Amino acid sequence: MAKIEQAVLITGAGQRVGFYLAEQFLTQGRYPVVITYRKPRPEIDRLVERGAIVYQVDFCDQEQFQSWLENLRDDIESLRAIIHNASIWVTDAQIAERPELYDQLFKVHVETPYRINMALSGLLKNTASGLKDIISLSDANCDLNRSDYIAYLSSKAALQNQMRVFASKFAPQIKVNDIAPGLLMFHADDSESYKQQRLQNQLLPIEPGPEVIWQSVQYLMNNPYITGASMPVDGGVRLIK
Question: Which residue in 105, 110, 80, 96 sits closest to 4, CA to CA?
Fold first, then answer.
């Protein structure tokens, strides 16, 4: 079977933003869509039905991760973009009860993007397209003092810094940028009081949904003159003291 060419790889595409991005790329139809997921979900079946190439892998399992990298290089001839969306969200209180979560944060948010970039940059350079992109999704709160999420935000800040260095390393062949989202979507069990409190902490007090990340990804992929940037998509939350 012929290898896949000019694919978009999205990590952690089993739900929420990653799933939305995968669906939008499939609808657009310009590139084959390759995704990773950790746990089976109905959303994965939906993506498979629409033509996505899927890999189940736990990035905290080194053997699984290495095997996935090798399989991917066997299956893929070239990549148009890598989108580092895989993420875990835990509080410092949860880490106090389960210390292994600290290592998992840095494995998923820092080590995994590093190893993927190093291992797969050649597939980006193989693409016939003039534009090649690596885009990470960090967190707008990296610039805020959130004392209950020290470990989580430290790992996301490390991701931002790492992408800036990769921008220098891979220029001019590959553009490397970061998107730093704020509030995008509430969870089904969020209370009305919590929702209102969150919205009051934004200059643009809306729940925008994942579409704003899709718009940002498209902007970065289509602009030939941006690299090493971290784009805040946060409703102005960083400006409220």
Answer: 80
Query: Residue 233 has what DSSP assignment?
Result: E
Catalytic residue selected from 20, 37, 149, 152: 152
- Within 10 angstroms of residue 192's Cβ, the number of other Cβ atoms is 8
Buried b (16+ CB within 10 A) or exposed e, 216-225: bbeebbeeee
Known catalytic residue: 194? no
In tens, the pLDDT along 55-100 reads: 999 999 999 999 999 999 999 999 999 999 999 999 999 999 999 9
Give every CB contact of residue 222 below 8 A, 6+ residues apart in sequence: 131
User: How far apart are the C-alpha atoms of 218 and 205, rounded to whole Å?
Assistant: 24
Give 10's pLDDT tier (boundaries 50, 70, 90): very high
Name the burial class of residue 39, with classes exposed (0-12), middle (13-18) and buried (19+) by CB atoms within 10 angstroms of its CB: exposed
Interval 164-206: pLDDT, tens: 999 999 999 999 999 999 999 998 888 898 889 888 888 999 9
